[in-house]
UniProtKB/TrEMBL annotation:
It comes from Streptomyces rishiriensis. It comes from the Bacteria. It is an enzyme of class 3 (hydrolase). GO terms for molecular function: alkaline phosphatase activity. This is Alkaline phosphatase D. Residues 65-161 form the Phospholipase D N-terminal domain. The lineage of its organism: Bacteria, Bacillati, Actinomycetota, Actinomycetes, Kitasatosporales. Keywords: Hydrolase. InterPro entries: Metallo-depent_PP-like (IPR029052), PhoD-like_MPP (IPR018946), PhoD-like_sf (IPR038607), PhoD_N (IPR032093), Phospholipid_Metab_Enz (IPR052900), TAT_signal (IPR006311). Residues 175-515 form the PhoD-like phosphatase metallophosphatase domain.
């Protein structure tokens, strides 16, 4: 079924209502919110009165999608699971009834030193997902957690709280991941990340892909029919997105990484649709149609990620940009460069910059998020100001030809937006800036220049771009364009096209980035290699080989 044909599955009455709403009103009006709530079955006020499932009816393991935790705060953890005894069914194998879920938090893996326990409800309108916020905990401490429903107990997860505000923390290590296309390879890098010593993981987008998956799982080359036929079309509806998360979360290596570490997540495009921009779809679908799809995608994202209550979506809107602190050592301004951006200039792709892309009114972040970022820098007391986000921030020419083409989907396609951010960082006196990026399926290490046209200008910070977990297939250490990119971009200090992830360790004197790779993803069992390591020093920004 084509995406266009699949759109017809949206309720006709909703589509009729949507056509009478202008784009601006569709995004902000209460009538639009009500219409979109209807299409994605948001819980009504009387949800608590819904029937409750008899636990004895849970005859199969409901914890097939694993457990996760996210957004560690001082004295607070967020715990997640989603019940799905039949994950490849649209309803997860559960009736439209609420389920009581017990949770437990302890200091040790055996739960002999319990700290907190309680119950919560898994509502069918939320895809039987649960998000449990546990407050009043000790700061900067590791905890273990698990869930129980009926006679079933989940696997054990490991999480942690952040240090106290203002704590002079000495060290922090984060894992940085992105882009995990199921049908282009195994998630072997996650197996290694689960065993790595990191405090939390930053996922920078493309957690899943909207595209169809064949019965053999694409490059995974399973026996025919292993992947159910329900995955044979592009996802468009809420059921589609829920099912796709279930497929991805069937991967044991992804489950292991989530159980081992808290995740801080943000999306890019494929969680909804390739290269969409705000309310503009890739194929220029009518806005009322695309925003219905976006509402479904955002709803499923919330249901399937360890996100806190402020990230609960409202129709086609979900405020994903947010700020986390690690004592006074580091602050993380997590961006969303999809929901609020101007449409890509010149029809997207690699293009020579011109008046359309250089229009000063264009934005990648939207005005409100841009102000939030820059104003936050003026108040920052952190040693390291870190910006986890989606698309390549540094200037990236694809040849030494003048003028060179640049990617219209990255910050190069929005140079006025980048200039405002760089000017804001400089005005705020940000001295140790690091941008963390995904999207492009390669490892890059960039120096961030105040003026990329003048390589003698001040280096304001560094950008660490992580390669993909599996997207793009096996890759190569030195892609065909390696020489051209290195020659055209003197601020590019490292480029590797194998799959993998990065770790960044922040200290009081320097930060160290380790680019980790696997030699292949189309078969299982690949070993992990640290392909390169760089440091950037406090007060002297710029990547240097470690």
């Amino acid at each position: 079924m084509t995406p266009a044909a699949h759109h017809s599955q949206h309720a006709p009455e909703l589509r009729a209502t949507a056509r009478h709403l202008g784009r601006r009103r569709f995004l902000t009006g209460t009538a639009a919110a009500a219409a979109l709530a209807f299409t994605v079955n948001l819980p009504a006020a009387g949800t608590a009165a819904a029937a409750e499932l008899d636990p004895a009816r849970l005859t199969d393991d409901p914890f097939t999608l694993g457990v996760a935790s996210g957004d560690p705060l001082p004295g607070s953890v967020l715990l997640w699971t989603r019940l799905a005894p039949a994950p490849y069914q649209a309803d997860g194998g559960l009736p439209a009834e609420r389920v009581t879920v017990h949770w437990e938090l302890a200091r040790d893996e055996t739960f002999r030193r319990p700290v907190r326990r309680g119950t919560t409800l898994a509502h069918p309108e939320f895809g039987h997902s649960v998000h449990v916020q546990v407050d009043g905990l000790e700061n900067d401490r590791v905890y273990y957690y698990r869930f129980k429903a009926g006679a079933w107990i989940s696997r054990t997860g490991r999480t942690r709280t952040a240090p106290a505000p203002g704590a002079r923390t000495a060290a922090l290590t984060v894992g940085v991941v992105s882009c995990q296309r199921y049908d282009q390879g195994y998630f072997t890098a996650y197996k290694h990340l689960a065993e790595d010593d990191v405090d939390f993981v930053l996922h920078l987008g493309d957690y899943l892909y909207e595209y169809a998956v064949s019965g053999v799982g694409g490059a995974r080359a399973y026996p025919a029919g292993t992947v159910p036929a329900v995955y044979g079309h592009e996802m468009v509806t809420l059921d589609d997105y829920r099912l796709k998360y279930a497929l991805y979360k069937s991967d044991p290596d992804l489950l292991a990484a989530h159980a081992a570490h808290p995740f801080v997540v943000t999306w890019d495009d494929h969680e909804t649709e390739n290269n969409y921009a705000g309310a503009v779809s890739e194929n220029d679908d009518p806005a009322e149609e695309f925003l219905i799809r976006r509402a479904a995608a955002y709803r499923a994202y919330w249901e399937n990620q360890p996100l806190r209550r402020p990230q609960l979506p409202d129709g086609p809107d979900l405020r994903l940009y947010r700020r986390l602190h690690w004592g006074r050592l580091a602050r993380f301004d997590v961006l969303d460069t999809r929901q609020y951006r101007s449409d890509q200039a010149y029809g997207d792709g690699w293009r020579v910059p011109g008046p359309e892309s250089e229009d000063p009114g264009r934005t990648l972040t939207g005005a409100a998020q841009e102000r939030w970022l820059i104003d936050g820098w003026h108040r920052s007391r952190a040693l390291w100001n870190v910006v986890p986000q989606q698309v390549t921030f540094a200037q990236r020419y694809n040849s030494t030809t003048v003028p060179s083409q640049v990617s219209m989907d990255s910050w190069d396609g929005y140079p006025a937006s980048r200039e405002r951010v760089l000017a804001g960082a400089q005005a705020a006196g940000v001295e140790n800036l690091m941008v963390l990026t995904g999207d492009v399926h390669v490892h890059y290490g960039f120096d961030i220049k105040r003026d990329f046209a003048d390589q003698a200008s001040k280096t304001l910070g560094t950008e660490i771009v992580t390669s993909s977990i599996s997207s793009g297939g096996n890759g190569s250490a030195k892609p065909a364009n390696w020489g051209a990119f290195m020659a055209a971009n003197p601020h590019l200090k490292y480029y590797n096209g194998l799959r993998g992830y990065a770790t960044v360790s922040f200290g009081r004197d320097l930060a160290r980035a380790d680019f980790k790779t696997v030699p292949y993803v189309t078969t299982q069992g690949a070993p992990l290699t640290t392909a390169a390591s760089f440091v950037t020093e406090v007060g002297d920004q710029g990547l240097k080989p470690a």
